[in-house]
């Protein structure tokens, strides 16, 4: 983005643009469908996989200790 006007330092200015919540959500959804992801989403997905593995391990332990078959 390039601006072609000079604004005196300290002068109040209006925002360049505004988005309502619904518009921001639509923009985020469109960016997501184009393949753009938040940086932290990568870490979140990795944490979810680790949690799923942990739960699988815990289920195996519980079924073994209770001496019952897994469903």
Explain the overall architecture:
It is a single chain. With 71 residues, the protein is mostly helical. Helices cover 58% and strands 0% of the residues. The protein has two helices and no strands. The radius of gyration is 25 Å and the shape is rod-shaped. The relative contact order is 0.06. The model has no long low-confidence stretch (mean pLDDT 86).
Q: SSE layout and pairings?
A:
Blueprint (H helix, E strand, L loop, with lengths): L20 H13 L5 H28 L5
Radius of gyration: 25 Å
Please give the count of helices: 2
Q: What does the overall shape look like?
A: rod-shaped
Cα(first) to Cα(last) distance is: 58 Å
**What series of H and E elements makes up the topology?**
HH
| Number of E-type strands | 0
Q: Which sheet architecture does the biggest sheet show?
A: none
* Poorly predicted residue ranges: none
What fraction, in percent, of the residue positions are helical? Answer: 55-70%
User: How confident overall, as mean pLDDT?
Assistant: 86
The amount of beta strand, in percent, is: under 5%
Structural class: mainly alpha
Brief overview:
The protein is mostly helical. It is 58% helix and 0% strand. The chain has helices at residues 21-33, 39-66.
Features:
71 residues; rod-shaped; 58% helix; mainly alpha; 0% strand
